[in-house]
């Protein structure tokens, strides 16, 4: 038995990252890639946040379950997360659905994805297992959550975020007592239960769970043998433990990682076009809520070999400039102006073009005199010269995917459909 007061629990733990979901509310952004592989923050992919939290917390044994259109995700993991040393007992295993159960070649649910890989997990002989969602943006020290799990004597510890009660109907909500024990788990309730002593706030599940490894295997095997479950942690495993065991809630605010400029616990589900655009644009603020410049808790990723960003031309109406923006390596701002925008690697903005509150993915070319406002542009798109987006709502909606709040998603097939 590990004494939590004397040893780092993360050294005896394994992280299992669930990264197989499509993220259908991101629409065309996930036509070619799974949600965890979607670009975020200029250099990263969404999955990098869960993986970086694990590594920064001291966890060196990680499994990543993939399923939907996994090629770009697998390639990213192979390129950016290949620094583990097998000689030191470290490793990152990529675990695609692969007919490990006779008669099917897919994961039936989140619990089934872990169940099908029990033998691989047992090979690492972890004392504890963290099951992590691979599609959220946050910084968290899992060592503190592991310590809470051990000290509470829980069968499972569920990571939770505090949300306004009137917004909690969109989440799975934990009903807890004064000791943070979960007494009920309610999926998207019309009347969410409030936290004790705080009637305006509810606790929503982050999709993060801590188990003692042997307990987890037992729960998974029992669930796999039951034909009447959906083989899902949130729908089956956790409610069963709440009813028959001890489930404890762990608030993100108790283990989140904050730089000096970060005031509150940061967690985002960037699962819609609006949420994705807003979270990226927020990074351009003077003091963003998420600090990517925090060297004490870096977000590790595949670092592309790119030249520095370049700004050229200095004429009155043709000046390469960027204000309140993040511009990554390989970008050329050639006689155009960029405002409140985030440009991933190898973006070319040609003369007289303008970007305003734009999220531009890698290898995009912006044609001359184009004006783009409130947009997300997918990787590799060629924006034709003179294209204007963000000034005529009806015209935008007829050509691109436009949200109710006015953000336009632009992909190459949409551009090709314009003709001319």
UniProtKB/TrEMBL annotation:
Pathway: Glycan biosynthesis; glycogen biosynthesis. Residues 307-410 form the Glucose-1-phosphate adenylyltransferase/Bifunctional protein GlmU-like C-terminal hexapeptide domain. InterPro entries: ADP-Glc_PPase, ADP_Glu_pyroP_CS, GlgC_bac, GlmU/GlgC-like_hexapep, NTP_transferase_dom, Nucleotide-diphossugar_trans, Trimer_LpxA-like_sf. The record marks 67 as: Could play a key role in the communication between the regulatory and the substrate sites. Alpha-D-glucose 1-phosphate binds at residues 107, 172, 187-188, 205. GO terms for molecular function: nucleotidyltransferase activity. It comes from the Bacteria. It holds the Pfam family Hexapep_GlmU. Residues 15-284 form the Nucleotidyl transferase domain. Keywords: ATP-binding, Carbohydrate metabolism, Glycogen biosynthesis, Glycogen metabolism, Nucleotide-binding, Nucleotidyltransferase, Transferase. Its EC number is 2.7.7.27. It catalyses: alpha-D-glucose 1-phosphate + ATP + H(+) = ADP-alpha-D-glucose + diphosphate. Homotetramer. Involved in the biosynthesis of ADP-glucose, a building block required for the elongation reactions to produce glycogen. Catalyzes the reaction between ATP and alpha-D-glucose 1-phosphate (G1P) to produce pyrophosphate and ADP-Glc. Belongs to the bacterial/plant glucose-1-phosphate adenylyltransferase family. This is Glucose-1-phosphate adenylyltransferase.
């Amino acid at each position: 038995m590990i004494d939590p007061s004397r040893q780092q629990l993360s050294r005896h733990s394994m992280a299992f990252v669930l990264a197989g979901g499509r993220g259908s509310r991101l629409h065309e952004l996930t036509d070619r890639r799974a949600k965890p592989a979607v670009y975020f923050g200029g250099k990263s992919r969404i999955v990098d946040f869960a993986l970086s939290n694990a590594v920064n917390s001291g966890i060196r044994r990680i499994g990543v379950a993939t399923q939907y259109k996994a090629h770009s995700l697998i390639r990213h993991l192979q390129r950016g997360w290949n620094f583990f040393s097998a000689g030191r007992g470290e490793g990152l295993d990529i675990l695609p659905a692969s007919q490990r159960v006779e008669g099917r070649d897919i994961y039936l649910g989140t619990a089934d994805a872990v169940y099908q890989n029990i033998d691989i997990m047992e090979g690492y002989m972890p004392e504890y297992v963290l099951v992590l969602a691979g599609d959220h943006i946050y910084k968290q020290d899992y060592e503190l959550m592991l310590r809470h799990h051990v000290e509470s004597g829980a069968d499972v510890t569920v990571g939770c975020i505090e949300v306004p009660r009137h917004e909690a109907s969109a989440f799975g909500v934990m009903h807890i007592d004064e000791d943070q024990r979960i007494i009920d788990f309610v999926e998207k309730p019309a009347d969410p239960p409030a936290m004790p002593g705080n009637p305006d706030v509810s606790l929503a599940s982050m999709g993060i769970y801590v188990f003692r490894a042997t307990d987890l295997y037992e729960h998974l095997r029992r669930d796999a043998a039951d034909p009447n479950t959906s083989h899902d942690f949130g729908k089956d495993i956790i409610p069963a433990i709440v009813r028959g065991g001890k489930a404890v809630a762990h608030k993100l605010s108790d283990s989140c990682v904050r730089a000096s400029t970060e005031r509150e616990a940061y967690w985002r589900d960037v699962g819609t076009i609006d949420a994705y655009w807003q979270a990226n644009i927020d990074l351009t603020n003077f003091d963003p809520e998420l600090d990517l410049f925090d060297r004490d808790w870096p977000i590790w990723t595949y670092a592309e070999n790119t030249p520095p960003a370049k700004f050229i031309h200095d004429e009155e109406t043709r000046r390469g400039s960027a204000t309140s923006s993040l511009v990554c390596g390989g970008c050329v701002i050639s006689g155009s102006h960029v405002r409140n925008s985030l440009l991933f690697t190898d973006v070319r903005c040609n003369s007289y073009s303008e970007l305003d509150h734009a999220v531009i993915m890698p290898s995009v070319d912006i044609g001359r005199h184009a004006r783009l406002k409130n947009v997300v542009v997918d990787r590799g798109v060629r924006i034709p010269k003179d294209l204007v987006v963000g000034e005529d709502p009806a015209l935008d909606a007829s050509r691109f995917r436009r949200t109710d709040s006015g953000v336009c998603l632009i992909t190459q097939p949409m551009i090709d459909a314009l003709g001319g």
